[in-house]
Design goal:
heterodimer; A: 112 residues; mainly beta; seven-stranded mixed beta sheet; four-stranded antiparallel beta sheet; 0% helix; B: 113 residues; five-stranded mixed beta sheet
Chain lengths: 112, 113
């Protein structure tokens, strides 16, 4: 079975632009979480979705938004990109959101 | 803020047991201890979890103290491929929990040949 897949794997944007990152969970998993990982730090929680509803939100500005689709895939959107948004963005899936997470390999975003 | 405290780095000789400590003194009754590891440039990988009893699987053993305020992850025979950052995380599985899993800075484990 396929694991968690994320696209694209790498992305370069300039300040002020908008970006959309995509995630497909493991088949049968209904929960998707998004994390931001800056170099040298642990992953920081951004959002969790379960059954298409937002279940949790981390301490990120409103420029960050997400949604989950009926097939349980998810998008993370970031508007008005800043240099500080450069990071590895990780998606994780689980069956119901309160058990072990399965992570994708991430999208490496560079903002110039 | 993370609910756990881990040493920033450790090293271990290849073939020996690696013992990674974690302090979670504010853990509450419905919170589990989870361990993940992250090998460079990859997403974190689940290792093991437990509530109050010791647990063992094909990857590692988890020893939780009786008062549940600390735990130790044991990799019985460390190999070079075990070089990674190891995260100890406290997770609430209560129905009304916020369900956000908070990673700390982890322990960078280096395995020396």
């Amino acid at each position: 079975d396929a694991g968690v897949t994320q696209s694209p794997t790498h992305l370069i944007k300039t300040r002020g632009q908008h970006v959309t990152l995509r995630c497909s969970p493991i088949s049968g998993h209904k929960s998707v979480s998004w994390y931001q990982q800056v170099l040298g730090q642990g992953p920081q929680f951004i959002f969790q979705y379960y059954e298409k509803e937002e279940r949790g939100r981390g301490n990120f500005p409103d420029r960050f938004s997400a949604r989950q689709f009926p097939n349980y895939s998810s998008e993370l959107n970031v508007n008005a990109l800043l240099l500080g948004d450069s990071a590895l963005y990780l998606c994780a899936s689980s069956f119901a959101g309160r058990e072990k997470l399965f992570f994708g390999s991430g999208t490496q975003l560079s903002v110039l | 803020d993370a609910k756990t405290t881990q040493p920033p780095s450790m090293d271990c000789a290849e073939g020996r047991a690696a013992n990674l400590p974690c302090n979670h003194s504010t853990i509450s009754g419905n919170e589990y201890v989870y361990w993940y590891r992250q090998i460079h440039s990859q997403g974190p990988q689940y290792i093991i979890h437990g509530l109050k009893n010791n647990e063992t699987n094909e990857m590692a053993s988890l020893i939780i103290t009786e008062d549940r305020k600390s735990s130790t992850l044991i990799l019985p025979h460390a190999t070079l491929r075990d070089t990674a950052v190891y995260y100890c995380i406290v997770v609430s599985t209560g129905y009304s929990s916020a369900s956000k899993i908070i990673f700390g800075s982890g322990t960078r484990l280096s395995i020396r040949p």
